[in-house]
Amino acid sequence: MKNKNQDNEILKSVKTSKIIFPIIIGFLVVFYMLYNEFSENPKFLENIGSFKLHFYSLFFIFLALIMMFIRDAGYIFRIKILSGDEFSWRQSTRIILLWEFASAVTPSAVGGTGVAILFLTKEGLKAGKSSAIVMATSFLDELYFILMFPILLFIVGQTELFSIGDEKFLENGFENKYFYFAVIGYSIKTIFTLIISYGLFFNPRALKWFLLQIFRFSFLRKWRQSVNNISSDLIFASNELKSKKFSFWIKAFFATFLSWSARYWVVNFLLLALIFGINNENLHFDILKFSEHILIFARQLVMWIMMLVMPTPGGSGFVEAVFSEYMAEFIPIGFIVVMALVWRLLTYYPYLLIGAFLLPKWIKEKFKK
Hints:
The protein is mainly alpha-helical.
């Protein structure tokens, strides 16, 4: 009965009715920005009307869709690797789509990992191995950010990466408000990864003891049982993963790198589709420079790190607003808000709809007994 009640509580956190909340937040923010854009720019509708679907626009939209396919294919391939091929391609695909749905309806700091163990165990894995896979995916995802952020910061430079909008920021990117969001998010990810690494590969029992001692304080005691459960999962995961060969981690990280990198290239191709679709003789094509593509890529990674400190599901509302400001210098006037909406329609909202369709059928199949 206890396990059944736990499963019910987990499923409540990702019930399909929760898709309404992030959709409402996201669209309210977009409509507010559209209203401001229309008020400040009388030629807003005229600018929008200048867009035409040329061949190259369709071509780059197609490439953006290919990037979304690669993103999901990388995750599916990673699940296959981490499970030791115990999942079929169909099962792996279903798990990833459900996992993405869970991430979309929970705050960014929580993500979909809380329900992922349930998905994996109900697909046939033992609880210990399911915990190991979830821990491994968290470790690999955070490792990607920890490695890529300083590399891109070095390549692009802090001024280019954080200086936007107001000219007073052009001299020193460290004065920009987004720099502090990024630093907080990156620090959380780094600390989390170091803790997970120590627990997974060195001494999980010592880490469990240490965490339980911390959560003995009265103001933290209500989370002590959850920490105890997570620590126990970490011990199971460590037993599963410590014996894995180096080649196993290389393949798993390659799949992780492929997925996250493809996710970020979506915006680059959407921007190119927009540029080629605008009928404007004065339009410049500096954005086609490779260095600016790298800058756009880097800013998206920073946006994702900043999402960690946002409490809304999937960063809804915050992401649309930051995107419109953070990418404004690359997008022709009049298209900033529309571009933010199209980007989210392609990369976020489909997972809400797919999950809302898949989850009830999956629950009916896996809990029918």
